[in-house]
Amino acid sequence: MTAWEPPDRPRSRLAYCCPEKMAEDREPPPLADAVQTDFREVEEGEDLFVSTVSTAEQLSPTSPEPASFPAEDISTNSNGPKQEILLDDDQEDLFAEATEEVSLDSPEREPILSDGPSPAITPVTPTVIITPRVDALFDRSLDEDEEAEENGDTFDMQITVSDPEKVGDGMNAYMAYKVTTKTSLSLFSRNEFSVKRRFSDFLGLHSKLASKYMHIGYIVPPAPEKSIVGMTKVKVGKEDLSSAEFVEKRRSALERYLMRTVNHPALVKDPDVIQFLENTELPRAVSTQALSGAGILRMVNKAADAVNKMTIKMNESDAWFEEKQQQFENLDIQLRKLHASVESLVCHRKELSVNTASFAKSAAMLGNSEDHTALSRALSQLAEVEEKIDQLHHEQAYADFYLFSELLGDYVRLITAVKGVFDQRMKTWSKWQDAQVMLQRKREAEAKLQYANKPDKLQQAKDEIKEWEAKVQQGERDFEQISKNIRREVERFEKQRVKDFKVVIIKYLESLVHTQQQLIKYWEAFLPEAKAIA
Amino acid sequence: MTSLSQDCDKEKLRSVSVDLNNDSSLLIDIPDALCERDKVKFTVHTKTTLNSFQKPDFSVSRQHEDFIWLHDTLVETEEYAGLIIPPAPPKPDFESPREKMHKLGEGEATMTKEEYTKMKQELEAEYLAVFKKTVQVHEIFLQRLSSHPNLSKDRNFQIFLEYDQDLSVRRKNAKEMFGGFFKNMVKSADEVLISGIKDVDEFFEQEKTFLLDYFSKIKDSTAKAEKMTRSHKNVADDYIHISATLNSIAADDNTALKQHLEKFAELLEKLRKVEGRVASDQELKLTELLRYYMRDIQAAKDLLYRRARALADYENSNKALDKARLKSKDVAQAEENQKQCLLKFDKLSESGKKELTSFKGRRVVAFRKNLIEMAELEIKHAKNSISLLQGCIELLKVN
């Protein structure tokens, strides 16, 4: 009945892309150094990562120069540019184009690349939820060449989150997601591997990364938000369309979160990230729960930060920071407003779909009731057209949401993270200033002690001065370092933002084109029916 | 105060009822209308070659209530019992745009000046559309009358067209309004009457079944079509807000994104105009069509009620005649009465059959015309949208 066939898999590539563009992007799959490419399912308990763990430890997270990618990862004997976008549809063709160096076996690849059997929770209605793949956001092949030169080579990593599965029962139930990584980076022990993760694992990962990197000025991508309502519905076992939509929304958000995280040159090397992607078992991140000890500590810290922010009056010597902060402040407001408008659009478009469907049914009944034969037939045809159109509006609403609305939501949260690092810089500056004040006091104390006859106290004072001199120096270094990091991070962030928006705008417009083209098709099919009324 | 002067758009608007205003012996149109607060004053212009009128070309000013008066007098005229009286035009309803305008005023602080101006323009266009619609509907009512062989000769119709003073003297006073209420009660009794009895005449039985069922279906379709159109307008409005915010972001942006955002905003602004046209065309061709024929079918039903009442009168007169014959009292009178009732009933049936047949023909032609036009407009707008979109995509890809 529906004109547009939803693909077998619950998640599929956005079908609105111009076919021409897809042909352009079609390049041979990533070829690893090692010829061994058969995929092995991650067995329970199998420890495959001993070697990589040790190398990862050598990469200190606080190293000052995290910008460069490990050069050894990128295979130099690849046969052409890397393929980053995976086209679910045309796997056979891709592998046919690969050279003999690749011992890739298409059927073997199937288990990874297709999503296999449908997830445990299936939507009740026949309408399958289709999320446009937004992995094109992370397609480096669209990059300007300068970035590739700067980093030595192109980035090559693809993460998919799939197969949401409900584990357990009742209020202790949770959703487990399959996280599949495909990469040729030598940071990882294999080219392709999957693990099962639950939502709190993602939150745990973010929490660790934030505590490690934010204070030195790295913009750590924020994790998707918790949703008590959404999860409760799932836990309770409500297998309706809204909980299926919720799961799909979350799955997509988790995927984007991971991709953004590994796109960060420092974070991708972080052992916690590597462990998250590779390890079969992960210690349960209980500290992410709101009411845990860590959770309460987080809340206290947040409050303290807010107070500090109000009380610290920083002497900004660098106009760049002042300008950028203002800029992000404005952008934050505008993006939130835009996000709200787009959410309204999604809502109205869904309404339009529902109302069109309702009209279609009514028109069908009217057609049945009509006693003039030709008119009756035409009215039934009208009903069918409207029914197809309601489906079209429904799909467009999804494009509105997953392409446009979610991007804006992500960026609203990202900008909060950006504002966070600016605050960290303020804190660092404040710490440095406090150290200077302390040093001054110690010097004054020492000066006083010069005239009292207490040699041991004097020595202690001199020692303290040395201690605080070091602290002041460290404070200044830290401040300079974080400032430098932020400059670089903001530049990287802005580049990514420009790219993300450019890509999404075009994809979104293409989705609108598709809808209009379908409309023409349907109405052109109806026109002769209307003319046939005699 | 808003005024509407003749413009060619009205030609397009007139397609709900076809074959009107063809007879040059009596041509009626509403070239002008004034809106004062709550009252709409229509300028009814008549051009005629008939001698029954004093002048060949003249205009009068009429209010909505005058139209209702005319309709009701026609309905109450015994002579026209066998005709489908064209449905009265609905009261001009500016409630929706007025309410939206009010809301807009309240929300003015939350939007940029550009946004506010655009929303206001949209609302003014909507207001104008409602205005045009009500003029059209009043005009069609008069044109239906003028093209009907019997009704066009009606004396009250002539008065309506010609009388250069205010008609309010003749309009419903309180007593008559109460009478109107009573009439509605009678009507529901009619509905019971008509649905209960099975008609001997095959034609009327079929018509009855058809009209009763069709009426409820078309009423439902009209409501659903209206909801659909409103959703469409909401989507178009959202494009305005999105476009405005994108422009704000673009203004502050100094990256490579600036141009993209500006072009995107510009495109959305153009698209929303197209979406708005899609919505209003759909409204005119579909919703208004359904709404008009819903009322027309009600008028056809009214004809059936009148016939049913005439039948009931005839049957009563038969009973009275039998009683009179039994009592041998007032037989001649009863016979005469019965003869009259039969005559009336037969006349009603004959004219009713003609009217209902031509009504079906009219309906089919109108539906055909409107459905074709709607499909053609949808295609045209979609093609327009595509060219706008693709033009923008090309521009953006180049950068």
From TrEMBL, chain A:
PROSITE patterns: PX. Keywords: Acetylation, Cell projection, Coiled coil, Endosome, Lipid-binding, Membrane, Phosphoprotein, Protein transport, Transport. It is a peripheral membrane protein. Residues 451-496 form a coiled coil. Residues 155-284 form the PX domain. One of its GO terms (molecular function) is phosphatidylinositol binding. Pfam families: PX, Sorting_nexin, Vps5. The keyword Membrane applies. SUPFAM superfamilies: PX domain. Residues 54-84, 100-124 are annotated as: Disordered. Its main location: other. It is found in: Cell projection, Lamellipodium; Early endosome membrane. One of its GO terms (biological process) is intracellular protein transport. InterPro entries: AH/BAR_dom_sf, PX_dom, PX_dom_sf, Sorting_nexin_N, Vps5_C. One of its GO terms (cellular component) is lamellipodium. Belongs to the sorting nexin family. Involved in several stages of intracellular trafficking. Interacts with membranes containing phosphatidylinositol 3-phosphate (PtdIns(3P)) or phosphatidylinositol 3,5-bisphosphate (PtdIns(3,5)P2). Acts in part as component of the retromer membrane-deforming SNX-BAR subcomplex. The SNX-BAR retromer mediates retrograde transport of cargo proteins from endosomes to the trans-Golgi network (TGN) and is involved in endosome-to-plasma membrane transport for cargo protein recycling. This is Sorting nexin-2. It comes from Pygocentrus nattereri.
UniProtKB/TrEMBL annotation, chain B:
Keywords: Protein transport, Transport. Residues 1-167 form the PX domain. SUPFAM superfamilies: PX domain. GO terms for cellular component: cytosol; endosome. PROSITE patterns: PX. GO terms for biological process: pinocytosis; protein transport; retrograde transport, endosome to Golgi. Transmembrane segments: none annotated. GO terms for molecular function: dynactin binding; phosphatidylinositol binding. It holds the Pfam family PX. PANTHER family: SORTING NEXIN FAMILY MEMBER, SORTING NEXIN-5. Belongs to the sorting nexin family. Involved in several stages of intracellular trafficking. This is Sorting nexin. It comes from Pygocentrus nattereri (Red-bellied piranha).
